[in-house]
Design a protein that fits this description.
Largest sheet: 3 strands, mixed
Strand content: under 5%
Distance between the termini: 61 Å
CATH superfamily of the largest domain: Clc chloride channel
CATH class of the largest domain: Mainly Alpha
Radius of gyration: 30 Å
Number of helices: 24
Order of helices and strands: HHHHHHHHHHHHHHHHHHHHEEHHEHEEH
Low-confidence stretches: 1-11, 13-37, 632-639
Shape: elongated
Number of domains: 2
Number of strands: 5
CATH architecture of the largest domain: Orthogonal Bundle
Length: 639
C-alpha cells in the first residue's frame, strides 16, 4: 500500500458519518467498542482544525483592527483610546493634534463602506450572533463561504473607524463560519456541521478574549434560552484550547482586566450584590428597549438599506464628539476617550481600578452613569443601523459601568471602606450580559477568567441567578430557541422523545413463548429449537439462576451447524456472543439505540438482578409508540 492510498483511505474513513452509539448497560460489554475510538479521533481532529483556523483568523483580525484604529483614530484624528489593562498600547504616542471634525465623520465613512460591502452578504449586518444561531437551528449549520471575508472586512471598517461594538462578535461569526466551512469541505453530516459551527464560535471568542473555558461554555449556551447544546461541549472545549494556545503563543498571556490585590469574600455584602442584580436587570431592560427602538427607526428610513450604517455612524459621531470634548476640557487631555467608541473595555477598567482623572464621590457616580447610558445609545446607533460590530463587548461594558456606579454609591451611603466598586463592576458586567443573553454559567466563568481570579465566584453566582429570573422573558438574541424541544434541529427526534416516556416493561410481552438455552446445551438441540421458533432471531443464553450470559444469533447457529467434523462437541457457550440487554426500567429509546448499534431486531429484557424476563421486538416498540402517539404531549407555549 502506498502512502497516497493510505492517506486517501484515512480521509475517507473520517468523512463517514458518525453513527449514534447505543447506550449499553454497564455490565454488558459492547461488541462495537472500536467505533468509540473512531468517533473520538474524528471529533478531536475536526475540532483541532477548526480551533487552529479560527485562532489564526482571530489573531489576524485583532492585529489588523489595532493597526487600523491606530492609523485612523489615534494618528489621524488625535483620539486617545481608553484601554483596559490587557489591551495593547501603542509603542509611542507622540504629539498629536485632536481633530474633532474628523473623529465625527470617521464612523460615518466606515459605516457607509460597510453598508456597500454588506450588499454581497446581507447576513453580516449587525452583531452576527443571531445569524450564527439561525444557521445552527434552521440551516443545518451551513454558512456561505463568502461571509468569512466580507464579515472580516466590514467589521474592520466599522470598528476601525470608531464604531461602538466589540471585536469578539465578528470573531465569533468568523469562527462559526470556519467551522461550517470545515464541515462542508469534509462532507460531514448536518449534525457534525452544527457541532463544528459551535466549536468555531468558541474558538473565535477564545482567540481574542483569552478565556478558553468561558468561550466554550458561551458557545453551547447561547443557542438556547433555557439549556445548552451538550453534544458540542467537548468539541468546543477542545477547539477553544487549541485557539487559546495559538493566540497566547503569539500575543502573550494576560488577563483583560487588572485590579489591586484580591476581592475578599464578605457575606455581609451579599444583599448588596443581590440588589445590584436587580439594578443591572433594569439597566439591561432599558438597553434592550433603546436598541430595538433605534433599530426600528432605522428600518423605516427612506432610501437604500446600504446607506443606513453610514447614517448610524454619523449619529454616533455627533453623539460622542461633544461628550469627548467636554471630558477633555475637564481633564485637560484633548481627545481623551471614555469608552463610547469601540468595545468600551477601557471604561470598565476605569470602573474597576479608576484613572487619575476620574472624580471622587457622587461626581464619579454621575460620570459612570452618563457613560453607561451614552454607551447604550452609541451601540444602538452602530449595530441597530446595520453596522458590522459585536454586541458582546458593549453589553459587558454597560454592565460594568452600571456595577461600578452602584459600588461607588454603596460605598458613599454606607461609608464602608471594605466595599470595593471594582468588585461590583465585575459582577455587574457578568450579570448584565449573562441575564440578557441567557448564558448564566458562561458569564460567571468569563468574568472570573477576565479578572484572572475566582474571588467573586459566589457574588457572581448570586447575581446571575437573580438577573436570570428577572430577565426571564427578555433576550438580546431573538433567534434563540427556548429549549431543545422547540428547536427545528430536534423536531425529527419527536419519535424518540415519545419513546423516552415508555418503560421497556410496559412494551415487552412477558407471556410470549421464546427459546432460551443453557451454556452447556449441544448444538443439535439449539438447531432444533431455532427451527421451532422461526420468528425468533436472538436466543438468550442463561445460567441456572436465570441470569443472562450471552446471546446466540441465527447466523452463528448456521455457521456452527455447517461444521460437521466438530458438530458433536459444539455447545452453546462456543457460539454465543457477549450479552446485550435492557433493564425493565429503561425506556424504549435506550432499547432502540441498542438495537441500532448492534444491528439486531430483538433484544433480551432483564430485571434489576440481571435475570431474563422477556424478549423485546421491534413490533413491540412500534405498537407501544403507536399507542402513545395517539395522545401526544403538547409542547409548552413560548412566552
Amino acid at each position: 500500500m502506498t502512502w497516497r492510498t493510505l492517506i486517501r483511505e484515512t480521509v475517507d474513513r473520517w468523512r463517514q458519518p458518525i453513527p449514534s452509539p447505543g447506550r449499553l448497560l454497564p455490565f454488558f460489554p459492547s461488541t462495537h467498542s472500536s467505533i468509540d475510538l473512531r468517533i473520538v479521533s474524528r471529533m478531536l481532529l475536526h475540532a483541532s482544525l477548526v480551533g487552529l483556523a479560527a485562532g489564526l483568523a482571530g489573531v489576524a483580525f485583532f492585529y489588523l483592527l489595532e493597526l487600523l484604529q491606530w492609523l485612523l483614530l489615534e494618528q489621524a484624528a488625535g483620539y486617545t483610546v481608553l484601554r483596559a489593562h490587557g489591551e495593547p498600547s501603542p509603542a509611542s504616542v507622540g504629539v498629536r493634534d485632536f481633530r474633532p471634525w474628523l473623529l465625527a465623520i470617521l464612523p460615518a465613512i466606515g459605516g457607509l463602506i460597510c453598508g456597500l460591502i454588506s450588499r454581497y452578504a446581507v447576513e453580516v449586518r449587525g452583531g452576527g450572533t443571531d445569524a450564527i444561531i439561525t444557521s445552527f437551528h434552521h440551516q443545518s449549520g451551513t454558512m456561505r463561504k463568502r461571509v468569512i471575508g466580507i464579515k472580516a472586512l466590514a467589521s474592520l471598517l466599522t470598528l476601525g473607524t470608531g464604531g461602538s461594538g466589540g471585536r469578539e462578535g465578528p470573531t465569533m461569526y468568523i469562527g462559526g463560519a470556519l467551522g461550517s466551512l470545515t464541515g462542508q469541505l469534509l462532507q460531514l453530516t448536518a449534525r457534525e456541521r452544527r457541532i463544528l459551527l459551535v466549536a468555531g464560535i468558541a474558538a473565535g471568542i477564545s482567540a481574542v478574549f483569552k478565556t478558553p473555558l468561558g468561550a466554550a461554555l458561551l458557545a453551547v449556551e447561547v443557542l438556547y434560552r433555557d439549556g445548552f447544546e451538550s453534544d458540542a461541549l467537548i468539541p468546543s472545549v477542545f477547539a477553544s484550547v487549541v485557539s487559546y494556545s495559538l493566540a497566547v503563543s503569539i500575543t502573550g498571556e494576560s488577563t483583560l482586566f487588572a485590579h489591586d490585590g484580591h476581592f475578599p469574600f464578605l457575606p455581609a455584602h451579599l444583599p448588596l450584590y443581590a440588589l445590584l442584580a436587580v439594578v443591572v436587570a433594569a439597566a439591561a431592560t432599558l438597553f434592550l428597549g433603546v436598541f430595538r427602538l433605534i433599530r426600528t427607526a432605522f428600518t423605516k428610513l427612506p432610501g437604500p438599506v446600504w446607506i443606513r450604517p453610514g447614517i448610524g455612524g454619523l449619529a454616533l459621531g455627533l453623539l460622542s464628539v461633544p461628550i469627548i470634548l467636554l471630558v477633555g476640557n475637564f481633564v485637560h487631555i484633548p481627545g481623551q476617550g471614555i469608552g463610547l467608541l469601540g468595545g468600551g473595555y477601557g471604561a470598565v477598567q476605569m470602573a474597576i481600578s479608576g484613572v487619575s482623572w476620574l472624580p471622587d464621590g457622587w461626581h464619579a457616580v454621575l460620570l459612570l452613569s452618563v457613560i453607561a447610558f451614552a454607551k447604550m445609545v452609541a451601540t444602538s446607533f452602530t449595530i441597530g443601523s446595520g453596522g458590522s460590530a459585536g454586541d458582546f463587548a458593549p453589553s459587558l461594558a454597560i454592565g460594568g459601568l452600571v456595577g461600578g456606579a452602584f459600588g461607588q454609591t454603596a460605598r458613599i451611603l454606607f461609608a464602608d471602606p471594605a466595599i470595593d466598586p471594582g468588585a461590583f463592576a465585575l459582577v455587574g458586567m457578568g450579570a448584565f450580559y449573562g441575564g440578557l443573553a441567557h448564558v448564566p454559567l458562561a458569564a460567571v466563568i468569563l468574568v472570573c477568567e477576565l479578572a484572572g481570579s475566582y474571588d467573586l465566584l459566589v457574588p457572581l453566582m448570586l447575581a446571575q441567578g437573580i438577573a436570570f429570573v428577572v430577565l426571564r422573558n427578555r433576550s438580546l438574541y431573538e433567534a434563540q430557541e427556548s429549549d431543545h424541544i422547540h428547536s427545528p434541529v430536534r423536531r425529527p427526534d419527536r419519535t424518540t422523545d415519545l419513546l423516552k416516556t415508555i418503560p421497556v416493561e410496559e412494551a415487552a410481552l412477558k407471556n410470549r413463548s421464546f427459546a432460551r438455552f443453557q451454556p452447556s446445551d449441544p448444538i443439535e438441540h439449539i438447531t432444533a429449537e431455532c427451527r421451532a421458533h422461526p420468528d425468533q432471531e436472538i436466543f438468550p443464553v442463561v445460567k441456572g439462576d436465570g441470569t443472562i450470559r450471552g446471546i446466540i444469533s441465527w447466523s452463528s447457529v448456521a455457521t456452527a451447524s455447517s461444521n460437521r467434523d466438530f458438530l458433536p462437541w459444539i455447545i452453546a457457550s462456543d457460539v454465543m456472543q457477549p450479552p446485550v440487554a435492557v433493564f425493565e426500567g429503561n425506556d424504549l429509546r435506550a432499547a432502540v439505540e441498542l438495537l441500532a448499534a448492534n444491528g439486531i431486531r430483538q433484544i433480551p429484557v432483564v430485571n434489576s438482578e440481571a435475570r431474563l424476563t422477556a424478549l423485546l421486538t421491534q413490533e413491540d416498540i412500534v405498537t407501544a409508540w403507536a399507542r402513545v402517539s395517539t395522545h401526544p404531549v403538547q409542547p409548552e407555549t413560548r412566552p
